[in-house]
Design a protein that fits this description.
5-stranded antiparallel beta sheet; 148 residues; Anti-sigma regulatory factor; globular; Heat Shock Protein 90
Length: 148
Amino acid sequence: MPVSDERDDVLLLDVPSAGDYLSVLPTATAAVATRLGFSLDEIEDLRAAVNAAVALLMPTERTRPFRRKPSDEPLHCRLEVGVETLQIVLSRSKGEPLPDDGSYQWQVLRALTDEVESEVQGALTTIRIRQRRPATEADADTERHRIH
């Protein structure tokens, strides 16, 4: 589902579901948000939101609570730049169910973002984050923000 018919800036990342690689996702999100004129606080909020979404999608090992269970399946990330919205879509092959929507990670996601939703479709579990882009004069020049 495209964010906007007027923009087609999309960054696709598939990363192994190991801790060291998962840190690429909030960093890539911050890079895109920086180009779009988000403030430093908004960028840090997006980084934290992506980390919370990853924590929801990648359950921890029961014996080592701060370690993510590695999986053979990569974690998929799609950053879509729309005229008014930055959308971050994170998905993985269906494994364990997502934690209850009252969990700490869900509360963090809701507090830090404009909109968040999840869905399970077939073998894919997805978390979709939408954040309104800042209204700046630079937004009038959409070509300036094109991801290359």
